[in-house]
Amino acid sequence: MPRLAALAILGLAALNTAAPARADLGVSGPYLAARQASFLSDYRAAAVYYTEALASDPSNPRLLENAMTALVGLGEVEKAVPIARRIETLGNPDQLANLVLMADQMKQGQFDRVIADLDAGRQTAPLVDGLIRAWAEFGQGRMTDALAAFDAASAQSGIKAFGLYHKALALAAVGDFEGADTIFSGEAEGPLRATRRGVLAHAEVLSQLERNDDAIELIDAAFGTEVDPGVAALRARLAGGDALPFDVIDGAAQGAAEVFFTVASALNGDALDGYTLLYARLAQFLAPKNADAILLSAGLLEAQDRYELATEAYAAVPKDDPAFYAAELGRAESMRHAGDVDGAIETLRGLAATYPDVAIVHVTLGDALRSQERFGDALKAYDAAIALFDEPARGQWIVYYARGISHERLDQWPEAEADFRKALELEPDQPQVLNYLGYSYVEMNTNLDEAMSMIERAVAARPDDGYITDSLGWGLYKLGRYQEAVPHMERAAALMPVDPVVNDHLGDVYWAVGRKVEAQFQWHRALSFDPEDAEAERIRKKLAVGLDKVLKDEGAPPLRAANDG
Fold it and tell me: Where are the TPR repeats (predicted)?
């Protein structure tokens, strides 16, 4: 089902965090601070300030709504429940308050209350209301009514697949694996969209039907040969003849959690991240060990630059969960963005020790080390990853490319060149590799024809990439084709106006064609953008004595000689 159709059915509404509240002397300060925190998606600060504002104005509906939103986004749904009750008591209908109260009732096992409130007119969104009703009937032990409710949800325009998926989960949860397989396989009403959770749930159903071979075939078709450790472990158990238990859903509360996760997954990428996060957090509230919901929440927090909260979320995945390695990769990335690079590297080192046979772990460690210019250590990590490759695959180019950069920065050019060539063998038209290798050849004044061909191919692939356009202009300059270099260097400077290297290069090109005043202007600009110390010193020397004298002092060919070919 198209995501945009799902959004329409869900009745997607804008959040109210930016709307005005009554601001008197006791509430204005905390309220303004809370609004700023909400604008920055700083859920922790927003929760604190809105709660403080409520102390002065406890019946303000907008403050109540925004405090509840902040608490749910923070993952503290328990604290949001009494606020949702207060909103309901005041008679102010609110979609999120209804969702929070519904989730709390499902968690408390108050299934009769859920049904009664829905009958009395409580509304959230058509998909949610229909599926939650079905799971509440399931929780009451009324399977016939539950199945009828799932069918009613499936009958709504555009959300048939969602209803069928949940019906299959419910059937499997009560041991009707044949019925569940009929839905999952598409025999009932057509194939379902192959989500990761759906595929694994179907694999467990097939295993319960003593069809492990079919489960393995399903997994291989869905995930291919390069699977994560969790899927690999499950596949190995199937291959070993184990009967996998069906544990995706073990009760109505987890079924409700799956509803909220389903909605969050449908919204992800199409709705505001903050709105999607609310559904993911409600899924976590109902199923605290649901690693998929945790990972989704953490990813949404990362997307909002809330790296500390994302780090906390990733840490909630238990060590014995198959998704632990993915959570640790995410946690390390969040730590790095939060400025704790050393902590991220140590996390990745520990993960590499725990999962020595997972290439992506070593690659991620290598990337983190390379970002800190620890190229020798990065090489060891990339070597470990490449040693795990069984067969050449297109996606491996980036690992050889990263290792090649590390070799190059360590002045190990033969090894670097071999890695770049291997990357191009796997991905012949990869513009990053073409540019890096071509630029390196230009800088070394070797293989110039091939170098320019590589750079031109890279520019054709990415005409708006400033770095690659700079390489083309610089290559032409190194070949003495100064006039040809000018428009390319000017375009590179337009694409990357505050890059010190690009501005420095443009200055050199201007000098070479006799536009010396403009050259000096560009060198001054380059200095203002904080170039590396060695480059800054060279630029100052050019400003003092001119490029010709600098080249002569460096023993480089003079511009005239280069221009003459």
Answer: 397-430
